[in-house]
Amino acid sequence: MADLPRGPRTLLRRLRELMAEPLEPQERLDQIVRHIAQNMVAEVCSVYVLRADGVLELYATEGLKKDSVHHAQLKMGQGLVGTIAASAQPLNLSDAQSHPAFRYLPETGEEIYHSWLGVPILRVGRALGVLVVQNKERRTYREEEVEALETIAMVVAEMIATGELRKIAKPGMELDTSRPVTVDGDSYGDGLGLGYVVLHEPRIVVTNLLNDDAEHELKRLNEALGSLRISIDDLLSRRDVSMEGEHREVLETYRMFAHDRGWVRKLEEAIRNGLTAEAAVEKVQSDTKARMIRLTDPYLRERMHDFEDLANRLLRQLTGYGPKGGDDGFPNDAIIVARAMGAAELLDYPRENIRGLVLEEGAVTSHVVIVARAMGVPVVGQAAGVVALAENGDPVIIDGDDGKVHLRPLPDLQNSYEEKARFRARRQEQFLALRSVEPISADGVRVDLLMNAGLLVDLPQLDGSGAQGIGLFRTELQFMIASTMPKVDEQEAFYRNVLKNAAGRPVTFRTLDIGGDKVVPYFRGAEEENPALGWRAIRLALDRSGLLRMQLRALLRAAAGRELKIMIPMVTAVWEITEVRKLLQKEMEFLSSRGYELPKSLKLGAMLEVPSLMWQLDELMAAVDFVSVGSNDLFQFAMAVDRGNARVADRFDVLSRPFLRMLRDIVRAAERNKLPLTLCGEMAGRPLSSMALMGIGFRSISMSPASIGPIKAMLLGLDVGKLSALINSALDDTTSKTPLRETLQHFAEANDIHL
Length: 755
Ligand code: PEP
Ligand code: MG
Known about the structure:
By secondary structure, the chain is an alpha/beta fold. It folds into four domains: 173 residues, Beta-Lactamase (2-Layer Sandwich); 111 residues, Phosphohistidine domain (Glucose Oxidase, domain 1), CATH 3.50.30; 106 residues, Enzyme I, Chain A, domain 2; 156 residues, TIM Barrel, CATH 3.20.20.60. The protein is 44% helix and 16% strand. A hairpin with a 2-residue loop joins strand 5 and strand 6. The longest helix is centred in the first third of the chain and has 24 residues. The N and C termini lie far apart (76 Å). Bound molecules: phosphoenolpyruvate (PEP) and magnesium ion. The site of magnesium ion has 4 residues, from helix 21.
């Protein structure tokens, strides 16, 4: 042993042996610091570990006074150790005591040491502790020594992350990795979920840290980089990657990183210092992330994500990890945590096990969120940093009502949420008991309660919720989750299945509402400056009439011998309906001529989402068999507020006089024209706004299935006549300063209406 050459490789080899020996955690850590000190010719080597309370505690030392272990401590940001942990950057000082942050800890006896080198113990860019070496003489540690100590810190990081050091934590002084954290986000889907974290892209755990043969590892790295570059070039040359646009830009950035000499040099250096190729990728990724984590520039942050994705791809190449890491051990109560994900990826998970979805990014109208809501699971979006803070298998509570995610919750919080969840479950049971109760108000007014749907997974909810039918079937969802355009036969089979499941209950199919924010992967229009007002829905469908005709044909065939209800989205002018009727007529003639059975009855309706229809209500109603108000879009266009932009979306109230007067005008026109009317936007599913809709005369509304129970419970106790009188006089009053929402809330309280 004595003549072995010094240097990081020898040390790492020795550390690997130590990691494999059956030692108690304290003994292992003591030996680690002893070997580091010997090898680096340092008089002191110490490990500080970050506790849950933000204090760095001395866990082991060679050279400082032994009885200061588990006593000496510094707060995050305090002293040199705290500065390193807070900044996640090394400090290399020839005279530590003259540094302004230096703090003398008398119990350690460190006053005689002058030179000081400390590095953060990092994992996924997060500091878990600090590793320090000290010498009496004044010297500056060489760059290779800093690198070497950083590499060794990875080994210690592994001991902390695997939970080994938890065993020697003092009671009540738990480590930071078990710290409860609450991440604030936005509520994208109501409800509570208690379960365990499933990282959508599981962090690849590199267990094989130290190499035997650096040349062999360099070769592996080069091969993996080679395949990575080829796979990116392949992606870029694929025809479905358009010549411009965001997707291409991201791939170009990947290519740039994959060829980046600086990155490759850092990786090679880490291998020469003794790491395996995969451990080198992890180390460089962690260092980069620690440096970039504080960036606020959104462009650079996005590039950081690109870089991480690339490093993860490389790790997968080197470790042979699949994107989902296998199904074994998938928890029964899974809360999926992802930076971002597609709707189809969510549907790949075993649905019955999913209790919630947490996204670092996303918008409330993104497809994955619509699908998650349709599944009835709570969703929290914009939960900054959650992926780095969560580990697979961590206990977690998702509070979709308040937009909060509680990672590793303390028992008190856990208990109070369990109580809340029980309360909800009891309410759910009460709603369930209402399933077969007729939706009739206390004063005898019937209001049909329908549900919104879009995928086969929604259909069991028809029975589960007690909805009377499907008031809005968003057909575009099937297109959005498919990787290629669904063929006519596939569409037909799908619609047939929907009708079969509905078992005679009415279903209103809305024709494709794509464009705007609803992106279909294989159908890209040109970039638009203002997509919400752009080439979308029926506008696009009339220009690409082949697409619409195929859909109409599939619907007509699927509804052979039954009732078929078709609804057109985003109608702006009556002639659009006339055009669709012509197409429908042609399709029916085509099918009859081929001997197909046609639907027993056909009803064509329009969605009222564009304010221009307000001044042609009678003409509109003469042209269709029914109207359904899309209040999400109608509100967006009437108030000029982007429904997906959190800054403005909640600025104005759907329960304000102008919007409710608008809706009341629609009700009056429908009464005048004796035309069936429904409303299918989100407001139908919220008790107070739903109550208001009943008050102004809506007798049919469609909502997410989870809302049917609560809305029915509200309806059963409501005196619609009394409410109508109040709301109509409040809407006619042009002098009142009282917000209508307040008036409605008072009414609910005074009349004991449960909202
Ligand atoms: C609406 O706009 O209110 C609506 C129901 O349609 P979507 O949410 O699909 O745009
Ligand atoms: Mg709409």
